[in-house]
Design goal:
Elements (H helix, E strand, L loop, with lengths): L2 E4 L8 E3 L3 E6 L6 E2 L10 E6 L2 E6 L6 E3 L2 E2 L2 E4 L3 E5 L2 E6 L42 H29 L1
Parallel strand pairs: 3-4
Antiparallel strand pairs: 1-2, 1-11, 3-5, 5-6, 6-9, 7-8, 7-10, 10-11
């Protein structure tokens, strides 16, 4: 029998059977599957099951519905699909639907042929790169000069205050 299995939060481990017909999911009590959570809309989505097919439909929910990390308005469900409603994740467990067609496509992967090595340092981790070493002295000088200027300005300000009093 098809079911949703909670994978996160307070719903982890809970199972919700998906029977024939329409299964409404949301935060309000009139839903077949009640999910009392702030990221779930009052009428979040529904699952339509007819025979060996299940279709998930988002009902214009505030926080969205995702299947396998993709935002969807409507999606056919397959065995082992990961469904996210708001911030709650569920596994769609329907082994009887597993044989209803291929799910994954072949990927064209390229294997690296050259030697691979670890980076020497992480200076290149920034998208802007590390600052050149020859400019560091200029930056230190500018920082020190700005600090001295700020101290002189404060001293002048306090001297003016003392003379005015």
């Amino acid at each position: 029998m098809a079911k949703l299995i909670g994978m996160s939060g307070d719903f982890k481990g809970r199972e919700y059977p998906i029977e024939q017909g329409e299964i409404a999911i949301g935060r309000k009590a009139d839903n077949a599957i009640l999910l009392d959570h702030p990221t779930i809309s009052s009428h979040h989505c529904r699952i339509l099951r007819a025979g060996d097919s299940c279709v998930l439909q988002d009902l214009d929910s505030t926080n969205g519905t995702r299947v396998n990390s993709r935002d969807v308005k409507e999606s056919a469900l397959r065995h082992k699909d990961l469904i996210q409603l708001g911030s709650i994740e569920f596994l769609f467990d329907a082994p009887e639907l597993a044989s209803s067609g291929a799910r994954y496509t072949d990927a064209n992967a390229e294997m690296a042929t050259g030697a691979m090595s670890a980076p020497q340092d992480f200076a290149s981790i920034s998208p802007f790169g590390a600052p050149p070493k020859e400019r560091r002295g200029i930056w230190y000088f500018a920082l020190i000069a700005t600090g001295i200027f700020a101290l002189l300005a404060l001293a002048w300000f306090f001297l003016k205050l003392l003379n005015a009093a």
